[in-house]
Request: fold
Amino acid sequence: MARPMGPRFKLCRRFGVNIFDHPKALERGTKDNRKVTEYGKQLTEKQKLKAYYGVMEKQMLKYVRAAFKSDEQPGTALVKSLEKRLDNVVYRIGLASSLRQARQMVVHGHVKVNGKKVDIPSYAVSVGDTISLKEKSREVELFKSNIDLAKESPSYIEVDRNNFEGKLVREPEREEVPIFVTDSLVVEYYSKNM
Reply:
């Protein structure tokens, strides 16, 4: 399946937010010199959310439809379901230095969920699931340095750096999810365009 693999820093400058969590992403400043309509704001927020999680439009629509059917607010439900993707949880634990790297680790079979190999990046992690690196993969220098240099994980993820593993201990609250997106604008966009 296709992945959004374009220039990352250009996207960060366009959105005015460091969505890829790279220290040099906004060195050249941001672009904010144009008038934006209400539809333009909604579209920008939707594209920003897709960029944060590396999701294409077809896959995003599946998450949106599920969020609209949920008992929660659609925006909150959407962000929670994206946050619990396996590639994202691997990144939040600190096993990978970027979401792209986390996705590649999952696809190449380096990651186990509850002791079983899972190679589907969109796999929905459930509360209580333990995500770990395969024993053989723990010897790879890149993965060792990732876990050593990892930032602190959000409070809904418990990390055991010595064993290269983490656990989703509870559902993430929207306020804890470290992304800068206005959920209501994303919901408005999709409610008009579905």
About this structure: Strands lie at 111-113, 116-117, 130-133, 157-160, 165-168.
